[in-house]
Amino acid sequence: MIYPPMLNIVQRRNIHPLSILIITFTYIFVVASFHSYAFIELMPLSLYPIAMIIFYRLPIRHIKHVLIASLPFATAIGVSQLLFIDEHILFFHWYIEARWLAFSTFVLKNTLAILAATVLFLTTPIEQLAGALLSLRIPRFLVIQLLLTYRYIFLFLEEAKRLRQAYMLRAPRHRAIKLSVWGSLVGHLLLRTFDRAERVYEAMTLRGFSIQRMHIKIKRWTTREMIYTYVTITLFIVYRLVVI
Amino acid sequence: MHMADALISPTVGVAMWGATAGIASYSLKKLNIEADEKKLPLMGVLGAFVFAAQMINFAIPGTGSSGHLGGGLLLAALLGPYAAFLTLSVVLFIQALFFADGGLLAFGCNVLNLGFYTCFIAYPVYKRLIRRTNIWLASIIAAVVGLQLGAFSVVVQTLLSGKVELPFTTFTLFMQPIHLAIGIVEGIATAAIISFVMKTKPELSTTIETPINRLVGTLGLLALMIGGIFSSIASSKPDGLEWSVFHAIGTDELRATTAVHHALERLQQSLALLPDYNLKGGGTSIGWLDIGTSISGIIGTFIVAVAIMAPYIIIKKWRKEA
């Protein structure tokens, strides 16, 4: 699991969250719609994440971490393609083994989809994303819950790390926590979670919280951003319709 | 079990997003959060807790390996099915967006596979069993049921998408046993936490009842059985209309002649999920059971059930509003 470095990433540019959300979904939709041997057809689509990474100067190190984390899955499914496909396919002027083309296409597709999602995450702070989700008519309750969960994830991960470290220091030869102890250890974490929820609720009530009144800023979608969004998604769709 | 975007087709992805949206809005309605705002921070922090708990591995006795909590069944046991489903949806969205664990297009598939079966099928099983047996057995059986259904759902969604070449039988035989083992571990981990919490703070267990309409359940299972099993041994002989056409013009299917017909035929072929009551790319058979046709039967049954129920629900809602 990859975590904290993303917290320190500075949001460098102003990109409208709704624009990037719509563009990312269209992009992934287009990438996923290509057939299993469309390696060459998919290649030009890699320009979008590459251009975004260069233009917004997104941290390569973080992107590398995300891609590496997804590798085991991509390799497992990719290898299954090597096992189950047994035919030759015409690739330009040569007959090549279809299994390798299917394998490469799967890995490329997976990489492009992950890159697009990572670009979305790295260019858009969660609060702005929440505003975009609200303007897409996602229920307010779910958006607030998203913000709350995200707020506490890193705090709890730190707490879990401390718990594990404390156990490992007392039981140095153990690779993992004994099941008989694990239940009460995580159980305690859960009880602390409940206490924290209680405190959070009381703090929210004291500040006059209500689901309807909670302010989430929705950025105005300017004509320029709208045109940028429509032009980009039209390019993706036209490319998909032309290259079949 | 998180599915990636490269595994699924846009049609399957969008359909599953639709199903997830439907279940989420139903859960929101049932939960009636406006009446109980206190649940909001609880759901938020419990979602974060699932992330944290997944980091703490435990040793699986006798194997030398370690496992971690999935969290779906635990959330359902603590929050009730509706709140748990919504919490899991948010957790999966964060995992897809910020941790690249599961795709954005595949988000709907992941919520159904990991959230729906756990909260709305495994949890009622757990709730019933816990009255008759102990917490450990109830958790293990419920977790296994949820994960087996989820794993099978992954297989079906992957095959319907047709983006990777995986034979149905091999894929199923690979997925189900692995998830049987994962289910047992998940059940043990869930029971370990719940039994600790029950001893320390018994008031924390959920009080929400899950409505299960027995008649609808039984009829649904019967329909699925007929769709799934009997469809594969159904007659391969032509039906009445095909027989008549065959005798009239010497062929069993009429062929299109104009350009418009051809274009529409191509469109239908590319859109059809189950051409000729089979999976795209053909199915596999085990003995007399044709798996492709069986799955087509089950999916067909679902589609018909939705098509029948939808007007009824719309009319009922419309009347209520009027």
From TrEMBL, chain A:
Provide GO CC annotations from the record: plasma membrane
Q: Which domain of life is it from?
A: Bacteria
Give the InterPro entries listed for this entry.
ABC/ECF_trnsptr_transmembrane, ECF_transporter_component
Bilayer topology reads: Multi-pass membrane protein
> Which residue spans traverse the membrane?
15-35, 42-60, 66-85, 106-126, 227-243
Main subcellular location of this protein, as a coarse class: membrane
Q: Which keywords does this chain's UniProt record carry?
A: Cell membrane, Membrane, Transmembrane, Transmembrane helix
Localized where? Answer: Membrane
A Pfam cross-reference name: CbiQ
What's the name of the protein?
Cobalt/nickel transport system permease protein
Automatic annotation (TrEMBL), chain B:
Assign the protein's first listed, main location to one coarse class: membrane
State the name under which the record lists this protein. Cobalt/nickel transport system permease protein
The question of whether Cytoplasm is a record keyword is answered with no
Q: Which PANTHER family match?
A: METAL TRANSPORT PROTEIN HI_1621-RELATED
**InterPro entries assigned to the protein according to its UniProt record, in alphabetical order:** CbiM/NikMN, PDGLE_dom
Q: Which residues form the PDGLE domain?
A: 214-316
Any idea where this protein resides? Answer: Cell membrane
Q: What is the lineage of its organism?
A: Bacteria, Bacillati, Bacillota, Bacilli, Bacillales
